[in-house]
Amino acid sequence: MSKRPWLVPVAFLLVYVIWGSTYLAIAKAIETIPPLVMAGVRFVVAGAALYAGARLLGAPKPARGEWRPAIVVGLFLLLGGNGGVVLAQKSVPTGLTALIVAATAIWMALFEALRPGGRWPRWQAGVGLLGGLAGVGLLLGHKGEGRVDPFGAACLVTASICWALGSIYAKGARLPRSPFVATAVEMMAGGVALVAAAGVTGQWGELNLATVSGSSLLAMTYLAVFGSIVAFTAYVWLLSVKPPSLVATYAYVNPVVAVFLGWAVLGETMSPRMFVAAGAVLASVAVITTFSTRKSGLPSSVSPRVMTAD
After folding, report:
1. Is the pLDDT of residue 310 over 60?
2. What percentage of the chain carries pLDDT values higher than 90?
3. Where are the domains of the chain?
4. Residue 121 pLDDT class (50, 70, 90 cuts)
């Protein structure tokens, strides 16, 4: 690394920009591809490619007892987490989606404190938690013009809760030793579940290949290759050379990127109320990330950000 100091800022740029842009890519992909179909195919393909690449580079295959925990994590993060996000983005703007998803850190801190044997965070993180919940309430509680679609809001809150629960479970689960193999199994398991969910909800019947646009296919390819593989590889490498607390800054940079791209590309706008709520949520995530230490019992990092690669 010392011979290539430029790799660190490049890796941070990849994680910040690519993961921040996945909300826009999802919005474009689901314009002509049913959401669960798009997400399922994307993760099955990305997971299979990542697994094959990791094994070719010498990563060991999962042991017998490591498959089930990885599958469970994949169901929480991708079926519940990403599935909720893609469904919500049919009716919720990309920037607002990113801000609500950013509150995952708040749910994670809360559930970690409430679980048996869990510890409450330090008082600074507790203040951040309360401020973040107030920000989420502002985002979801508006009744006038620009209010969040109730179904979309429910999907996003459910997705955030699933992501938080899956991340907490993953912290103590017996997962494959290679983070690339572990994530590949999670992607494949979640992808298969999303494909099945698309069948149960009738979304495969809504798919018309003749009307699928080139921009939707390009966006889905971008999500699979860059969101799920390139940015994730950069993320895992950063965790090996930089403190987790520094790497975790993606959690409050990504929403800023998403809001900007939503405004610049899709013409989305934010009301003053939403700006105040966004500030509360992002400040909360920053405080919780800073003061949630191992001493307090909170995760020092979360599972790979495939929710927006997600």
Report:
1. no
2. 48
3. 7-296
4. low
Nearest to 201, CA basis, from 309, 73, 86: 86
For residue 214, is pLDDT > 90?
yes
The CA distance from 4 to 232, in Å, is: 20
Within 10 angstroms of residue 13's Cβ, the number of other Cβ atoms is 11
Q: What is the mean pLDDT of residues 258-278?
A: 83
For residues 97 and 89, the answer to whether their CB atoms sit within 8 Å is: yes
Spatial separation of the C-alpha atoms in residues 38 and 29, rounded to whole Å? 7
CA distance readout (Å), 232 to 11, 238, 278: 10, 10, 26
Task: Note the pLDDT of residue 108.
Answer: 80
pTM score of the predicted model: 0.85
**Residues 37-46: pLDDT tens digits?**
999 999 999 9
Under 8 Å between Cβ of 303 and 166: yes
- Can you read off the two tokens belonging to residue 143? 């009744």
pLDDT for 59-92, tens place per residue? 999 999 999 999 999 999 999 999 999 999 999 9
Contacts for 108 with CB less than 8 Å, ≥ 6 apart: 163, 164, 167, 168, 298, 299, 302
Contact predicate 99/281, CB 8 Å = yes
The Cβ of residue 40 has, within 10 Å, a number of other Cβ atoms equal to 28
